[in-house]
TrEMBL record:
Homodimer. Interacts with FtsZ. Keywords: Cell cycle, Cell division, Coiled coil, Cytoplasm, Septation. InterPro entries: Bac_CellDiv_Activator, Cell_div_ZapA-like, Cell_div_ZapA-like_sf. This is Cell division protein ZapA. GO terms for biological process: division septum assembly; FtsZ-dependent cytokinesis; septin ring assembly. Activator of cell division through the inhibition of FtsZ GTPase activity, therefore promoting FtsZ assembly into bundles of protofilaments necessary for the formation of the division Z ring. It is recruited early at mid-cell but it is not essential for cell division. It is found in: Cytoplasm.
Amino acid sequence: MQVKNKVLIKINGQEYPIVGAEPKEYLLKVGSFVDDRMEEVARANKRLSTSMIAVLTSINIADQYLKQKDEIELLQQQYTVPLNKLEKIKAELEITQKRLEETEYFGLQQDEQLNELRQFKENHEKETISLKNRLQEKENDLQKAEEIINDLQNKLFENQLKLVEARKQLEGYIETSEKGKYKNK
């Protein structure tokens, strides 16, 4: 339950008790406002009775209230369009931020893939260098083997020449010995 505040205010020379949930200072301010308006009406029209001053003051306050209410409604209408635009812009901003986040995420994925490709390329280059080195070693081994084969072929050829020469000498010796046998017989 709300606490009710009670104040005694003076309006047009008479005291009135006012009760409300608002603070006492606010209630005194309302009473002072009504008293000031009634004094303005009474000064402008000295022949009016208190009830007529109260009615005219009520009419003046109602007039001020309705004009201000209309003005507030007009201002609200004037601000509604920009506020609606602002809401649309906020919505577009949220969409743009989501797209930006998606783009950043996609960019991070692309960076990761690029790093993976770079790593693959580095590994491939290392493997290629390793294979080239092994190939060079095999080519060196092959060249050494060919040199050994050539040396062996040359030695074989030399040995075949020596063999042919030795056969000729043997055949010559055999012929000479056989001729010597026939002469001795």
